[in-house]
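Researcher: We are triaging several targets before committing to wet-lab work. For this one, the compound of interest is adenosine-5'-triphosphate. I'm pasting the protein sequence and the ligand SMILES. What I need is the predicted three-dimensional arrangement of the protein with the ligand bound, expressed as structure tokens, so it can go straight into our comparison scripts without reformatting.
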Amino acid sequence: MSPTGLFITLEGGEGSGKSTQIRRLAGFLEKQGHAVIVTREPGGTPEAEKIRNLLVQRDGGDWTPLTECLLLFAARVMHVETLIKPALAAGKIVISDRFTDSTRAYQSYGHGVDRDVIEKLNTLTLGDFKPDVTFILDVEVEEGLARAGKRLARDESSEDKYELLGPSFHQRLRDGYLAIAAREPGRCHVVNANGTLDEVTDAIEHIMAEVVKAHAV
Ligand SMILES: Nc1ncnc2c1ncn2[C@@H]1O[C@H](COP(=O)(O)OP(=O)(O)OP(=O)(O)O)[C@@H](O)[C@H]1O
Ligand SMILES: [Mg+2]
């Protein structure tokens, strides 16, 4: 557990509802009087956002899965040292849209990088720093991709590299996330994200209320 603040991450495949639910969760916690910082990965600082563009833009480059891992951890260590840890030390709640579990899911379960390599990079760059609480939004692959497609059409974003990968990649991601959650049941809460936005919000808020009590923040 972080010494003072609380570090929360939301994880899940494309279109599982992370960004939408983070906005709602931040509002829920702010209403209770908490100071909340919302951030995202890859990115979260100006330098790390530059690395994000290399990784998620359609024309960002044709990185191998291992070089993607190195870029992701380079961005992550910057994010943790300059934004997340100082905010936690100031007693804030930090909510990140993705974190190391995304590297585990996408680069290892999705693209086949050895799990042990990712854990070594994690330890090398972050030591034993990790989220206090992680929500894994679990949605049917088809439903998630359909939602992500609608969001992309609306945003006119070119951050669509992963949406363009086939359904078998996304099924490996989903299975990977469930395996990650099974290995760390104390930290990871799997939330059924197939329901309506309000149903998913209710499930997250229910767990969050317990977590806030347990961490005494
Ligand atoms: N439970 C839900 N039911 C219906 N639509 C949803 C639900 N959750 C999210 N959406 C819609 O699906 C789209 C994708 O949601 P959102 O951007 O929150 O997902 P995300 O997990 O952040 O996706 P990405 O990984 O692509 O960033 C949005 O248009 C959002 O309004
Ligand atoms: Mg999002």
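Researcher: Any quick observations?
Model: The chain has one domain: 6-215.
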